[in-house]
Amino acid sequence: MPTYKAPLRDMRFLINEVFDFESHYKTLPNGEEATPDMVEAILGELAKLCENTIGPLYHSGDHESCKLEDGQVTTPKGYKEAYQEYVAGGWQGLSHPAEYGGQGLPMSLGLFKQEMMGTANWPFAMYPGLSLGAMNTIQLHGDEEQKATYLTPLTEGTWAGTMCLTEPQCGTDLGQVKTKAEPQADGSYKITGTKIFISSGDHDLTENIVHIVLARLPDAPKGTKGISLFIVPKYLPGKIGESNGVVCGSLEKKMGIKASATCVMNFDDATGFMIGEENKGLECMFTFMNSARIGTACQGIAHAELAYQGSLPYAKERRSMRALSGKKDPDAVADALIHHGDVRRMLLKQKAIAEGGRAMIYFAAQYADNMISGILEDDKDKYDRWDSELGFLTPILKGFLTEKGLEVANDAMQVFGGHGYIKEHGMEQIVRDARIATLYEGTTGIQGLDLLGRKVLLSSRGKCVRDFSKKLLDFGRKYLTDSDLRPYAWKLLKIAAEWNYLTTRIMLVAAKDRDMVSTASHDFLMYSGYAMMAYFWALQAKVARDKLENGGNEPKEFYQAKLATADFFFERMLPTAKGHAEGALKPTKSTMQLAPEHFSFDYE
Asked: Is 407 a catalytic residue?
């Protein structure tokens, strides 16, 4: 069984040496207290919580799973006690305003927390994680009374939150939402309908659960333009224990994350309160959805990291055959797996995705900090700028990192051979749990359409790609004559040019053939993920080289390992991007020409 150990050295490398969070925090209105000593203390204490309390529940929670009796969900043994310890430490309000009981620290610290908790035990981390999105939505779009009523107990962690979007008939197409909201004389609404796939929809960890619900007013316009957003608590404030017409109808029987309660929620004349403007619910909900999508991107690196922590020790201990280059352990019956090239390939892929993905998330975390600064400073232009910048990153982070996290979790299971397929070693659970990450908060296909269709083509006409690829160009030009960094620099220059060429070609073809957007979107997303990760591996290699020459906080072997992993990514993983580029530019005919009735001739 993999035992979680917080990767503090790698986290510190990114925080202190690659992205200089100390200087970054000095630019933020809420960054004064985020000193290096404070950040180090937070990471250290959180590591103890995750390693000693949350992590040990990962496998037992999967075995026991959640239970539903008489409309009440109970979580696995140990979850309530672990959650109380989490709440007692003030962790829920780490990055939320002090006026509501939080610590008021930058959002990036919350993402560090989310990564660590998610790697230790993703199903557990989902309970407080869903609450964060509800808190952000109420903070940005709620009125003063709603903030005063809900934010303090949510920030304290005594209440939890959810988002209730989809329904049996609509999936991702929220324009088909049927849940009704009937206005009442007192200004409230009666909410009636059924929501499915509701993570943390019901549980026994908190005294109340605040549902953020999409519903339609009478005579609302059809489609997404007729959806409003409502706060619907399980129990009305001041009436804890009295039913508000919200009940869990059933628990989904799932492939993975079994200790996370995924509920069918029934609303039967439940009292709700509108948040934001009438028929503008989907716009408000995107605050919640974007928060959740960045959190789900963390799941990609969380499962890559945990799988690596399980497969690496096994590869060092398990003996099978002799290395092709000669005996490595002559006194043993066979050599350790780690001496075999193909096993090393799988281990290095896990390491490259976990550490490269972490760099991508931490970079995005600084964008999130800047966006929140716009809110705190009441600077709409600043908020809009950084919200747009983060909006371009979000589908890449969510789509690419979850796909790669699942891929390398499968590689980790492969390292174990047949032993990986049985429960004893814990690897099959990681694969099962990782599978959902590519599906919820918008499938990878939806992320691709969001990236290419909305962000790149409609919103910016390719400007967002030009802006980000400039980072690759600047690095390439600066280090092209540097003997150590030239291989990275040259490849980044080629990727930047190809990325922009790819964008322009798709844009021109899509003007005449709309299907081009959907047939190219997956390949474009994956290419963008490889391009972005290449930049961050080059950046890590540059810093590692500098620290080897001038001294750093870690031993030289740490920095040498960074350079070796960067080499592996550029030489063995980055070439995959070329295939995605070629696939994205192929005519739509090969995908769209087959008539639906001709997909099979043997069954209806």
From this structure: no
